[in-house]
């Protein structure tokens, strides 16, 4: 155990195990505080297991979890109260001890001089300079004044963030706009399916972030820790505060690999891959090329996920490659879908079922991936069919393509901007926040019931830009989003089922039926995906050129 005394009566440490508790008692500790949320890692004991171990040794136990990067003022106050209430000495732990040290530093803000707090933390091996401003502010996040102020602040520089920044600049070039994002690289994620199918090169799906931020837009290269919308403030890691007149929230989704036991440890090896990661998509194609016989599993988690068709796109392109090489008859393809349908818009299902039959794939509905044993090449699925008791099945595999569970990022889920399910709460037509009038959202993180695709963000960006400009000019929203999303389903090399639809599954074709019938496989749609969409993304969408994406005006009822 790595126990670090930080003050009289308190030590902090990285993760401790139930088997460590007797030794902690022998060291004289009388209470334990757990600051690590459950399920951060597969080998991590849950707080209930730790509590039981502490109780067995006569130690008191408190669970006070802290999401990484989000140490709230309330949690710091609760930590200080716990130290006053618990018998000492106390051990507080998280993954590394940093969150516990941070909580102590903030809770002591009104009791000790700032240099003493920083010095005690440093002596224990923890650098608290990043929260020095909060400590100096009495342990509270200072949002009354900011380190910077902008007309519009955009959180997230993905497809939605850069597009809406460019659309705003094209409408009102004098706006002072900042984009907040810590990433160095921007990815064209729709291209990763094609990388996994051996069609695109990985390097063609990535560009430096700095080359894409629109001219005149400030790039703040930092992570967001919290929102204080009542103070029109965004709090960054390190407690810097950025103030805004209007805020746009579009950080994308969190890929929750850790939600599947054993998955993180085996990704990229043991035949386990995913086109949802830049570094893994090439491994998908490597596995497909090397496979001549055996079982290939393709998984799809519960909705919502980004690009709901992506899990089966991987299946179709793999099946087509095996068909072309003449080995398909020796490969057992299993599609494990946590949902109950192949595709959510029924008009496209007949064409897709034709390819399911062509590749001899078995459809297993209500099968949700629960754990993976990579070295043994076995996967466990939880089966939850309606009106039936849940069961589990363990399936052997030679190759497995995984679509990870997906959630809103932690800093969104715990924020005042989120609905009960953790998504940014917006009006589905205007994309304006339902509570805070100067906040908008687009992309995967908001709660409108549309498909989470780059094509959806392409349509949403002009709507948000138009409505913000109208708001700046003192008017009401003027543009509305109809739920448009597009999913080019790559059913074989050279053919695509071009699914385009809006709210409620209404078909929203972009082209006349004689050119592209979206309900049938089309070579023209393939050419669109392979040749036209990448340059449209890089050179039009991200530069504010709204080809086939002009915002729809709000229709005002006649009086």
Automatic annotation (TrEMBL):
Pfam families: BLH_phosphatase, Pyr_redox_2. Its cofactor is FAD. Residues 2-109 form the Beta-lactamase hydrolase-like protein phosphatase-like domain. This is Beta-lactamase hydrolase-like protein. It comes from the Bacteria. GO terms for biological process: sulfide oxidation, using sulfide:quinone oxidoreductase. The keyword Coiled coil does not apply.
